[in-house]
Design goal:
Layout: E1 2-7, E2 25-30, H1 41-52, E3 57-62, H2 69-73, H3 75-82, E4 88-90, E5 94-98, E6 112-117, E7 120-121, E8 129-130, H4 135-142, E9 150-153, H5 175-184, E10 188-191, E11 199-203, E12 206-210, E13 225-230, E14 235-238
Parallel strand pairs: 1-2, 2-3, 3-4, 6-9, 7-8, 9-10, 10-12
Antiparallel strand pairs: 1-13, 5-6, 11-12, 13-14
Length: 240
């Protein structure tokens, strides 16, 4: 069993999360929006120091979100800061393989393939926005490897954990991402972005998590989700 904690959309308020809500485990995944306006580099510094301090996790991974403008506008500066934190993995249109096949590579089925990307359909010209249902956005989803086990995107797929409280009929997720996931069938999909979409669903063989920890008022009311995952059977058990 692999213990995973997921969270998203901390918007500089990561300090509100008590350590009891981050119990530790094998993998910690943050699905973007660590910043507010996206222009204050101190937002990044504070997050990286905090994320690195979570020594109770073996592997710590995060992606950017639509508020994280500096990751798009000043990638060289961000890389310089990231390089100072060797225990943090940042994914941007990139994959990570956690090898579980032993020293001789005898059991490749034990490897975990994680792919992360920040893009969302265009909305008020925030970071990593691409035209809704456009060819550029489609290309980002098509680039996701077919053998991905855990997919991390900032925004949700259309029809899954993507509505705002009081408007259950108004799905805000990406249609093209939903189509790609339906074809790809990753074991786990983690997102955020739509804060009141927080929650969990299982359908068509995929565990879906909207891991936004702040509500629509940017208050910390939604805990990170921690679960034990059996990769072979693709079953999970939540840790209370």
């Amino acid at each position: 069993m692999i213990r995973i904690t997921v969270l998203s959309d901390t918007h500089t308020r990561h300090g509100l999360i008590p350590m009891s809500d981050l119990p530790g485990g094998d993998i910690l995944i943050h699905a973007g929006d660590i910043m507010n306006s996206g222009y204050n580099k101190n937002d990044i510094h504070d997050f990286l120091y905090w994320f690195s301090s979570l020594k109770q996790y073996d592997t710590k991974i995060f992606i950017a979100g639509n508020h994280d403008r500096m990751f798009e506008n000043h990638p060289e500066d961000v890389k310089e800061w990231l390089d100072k934190f060797g225990d943090i993995i940042y994914l941007q249109d990139d994959d990570l393989v956690l090898y579980g096949d032993g020293p001789n590579g005898d059991y490749p089925e034990g490897n975990i393939r994680i792919y992360g990307l920040p893009h969302t359909p265009e909305f008020y010209s925030w970071a990593f926005n691409l035209p809704k249902n456009g060819i550029e956005l489609s290309g980002k989803w098509e680039a996701i490897p077919d053998n991905t086990d855990i997919l991390v995107t900032h925004g949700p797929a259309f029809g899954t954990l993507d509505t705002v409280k009081g408007r259950p009929w108004d799905n805000l997720g990406c249609e093209l991402l939903a189509e790609r996931i339906d074809k790809l069938r990753p074991k786990i999909h983690i997102c955020g972005h739509i804060h009141s979409g927080y929650g969990y669903e299982f359908k068509n063989g995929t565990h879906f998590f909207n891991a936004s920890v702040l509500d629509e008022s940017y208050e910390y009311t939604q805990k990170p989700m921690t679960f034990d995952w059996d990769k072979e059977t693709n079953t999970i058990e939540f840790v209370k």
